[in-house]
Design goal:
Elements: H1 5-61, H2 64-73
Length: about 100
């Protein structure tokens, strides 16, 4: 049985619609991935900002201006130069 003209038109129409559907699906997936990537970049920038802020707060909390009043309240004092003993680090034998 030979295919008539209208059958060929229907076959080409179905092939075109399948190809167009595949292209649309691929582009839609690409747009979704691009949106997710942009969202992840924003989230990363926010997290890096928080990390910088936490590091700043940590440096401030470790400063002498903050620690000395706390040490005095606990009854501690700053040692004099003659009270400081430097201990040498053991040699590294992992070679």
């Amino acid at each position: 049985m030979a295919l008539k003209g209208r059958h060929w038109v229907a076959i080409w129409l179905v092939a075109f619609l399948a190809a167009a559907g595949a292209i649309i699906a691929r582009q839609t997936a690409g747009y979704r991935m691009a949106r997710a990537l942009a969202d992840n970049r924003v989230t990363r920038a926010n997290l890096e900002g928080q990390r910088v802020e936490l590091e700043r707060r940590l440096r401030a909390a470790k400063s002498r201006d903050v620690l000395m009043p706390i040490a005095r309240r606990l009854g501690l004092r700053q040692p004099s130069d003659s009270e400081i003993v430097l201990l040498p680090a053991p040699p590294d034998d992992r070679r």
